[in-house]
């Protein structure tokens, strides 16, 4: 592979990142596929995984690609961001939160923090000396939420 092809691949990847940042995953997907045909970089797979999951609905394939990126670069918070977004797309909120929190522990990322802040903080249990999972806390919280007092 020539150095010019590698350079073109890197430029195409940067174009893809900008498109994804502007929520244009269709253009991002096209640019990523072109970039990866010029230079196969496992660090780019999580971006491809997110685009494939969002645009083609291939959540399991997107998950596989993110895992490959995480194995290749385990301290890159952007891979956790992409993986967390895939989990949110699939409706797996608890797993998404776990992955996003792990990403924050690996490094600073403004978008990752913004997504976590959207979830907000949980309110304290109504009966503080009982665990959150206790049926009394669960049902009292649910009842008060439904009548608008919590």
Q: What does this entry look like structurally?
A:
The protein is built from eight helices and no strands. The protein folds into two domains: 3-119, Serine Threonine Protein Phosphatase 5, Tetratricopeptide repeat, CATH 1.25.40.10; 122-150. The mean pLDDT is 92. The chain is an all-alpha fold and 150 residues long. The longest helix has 19 residues, at 3-21. α1 runs antiparallel to α2 (25-38) and α3 (45-56) packs parallel to α5 (77-89).
Features:
72% helix, Serine Threonine Protein Phosphatase 5, Tetratricopeptide repeat, elongated, single chain, mainly alpha, 2 domains
The pLDDT mean sits at 92
- Amino- and carboxy-terminal Cα gap: 61 Å
Low-confidence stretches: none
Largest β sheet strand count, sense and barrel closure: none
Instruction: Report the C-alpha radius of gyration, rounded.
Output: 19 Å
Q: How much helicity do the residues have?
A: over 70%
Q: How does the helix and strand content classify structurally?
A: mainly alpha
CATH superfamily of the largest domain: Tetratricopeptide repeat domain
The dominant shape is: elongated
- Count of DSSP E strands? 0
CATH class designation of the largest domain: Mainly Alpha
CATH topology of the largest domain: Serine Threonine Protein Phosphatase 5, Tetratricopeptide repeat
Secondary-structure element series: HHHHHHHH
Tally of individual helices:
8
Whole-number total of structural domains: 2
Beta-strand content? under 5%
**Architecture of the largest domain in CATH?**
Alpha Horseshoe
């Amino acid at each position: 592979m020539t150095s010019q092809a590698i350079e073109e691949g890197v430029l195409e990847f940067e174009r893809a990142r900008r498109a994804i940042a502007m929520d244009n995953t269709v253009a991002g997907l096209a640019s990523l596929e072109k970039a990866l045909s010029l230079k196969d970089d496992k660090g780019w797979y999580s971006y491809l995984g997110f685009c494939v999951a969002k645009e083609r609905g291939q959540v399991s394939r997107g998950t596989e690609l993110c895992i490959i990126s995480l194995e290749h670069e385990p301290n890159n918070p952007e891979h956790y961001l992409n993986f967390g977004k895939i989990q949110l797309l699939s409706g797996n909120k608890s797993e998404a939160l776990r992955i996003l929190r792990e990403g924050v522990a690996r490094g600073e990322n403004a978008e990752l923090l913004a997504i976590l802040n959207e979830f907000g903080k949980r309110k304290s249990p109504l009966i503080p000396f009982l665990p959150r999972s206790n049926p009394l806390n669960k049902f009292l919280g649910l009842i008060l939420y439904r009548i608008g007092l919590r």
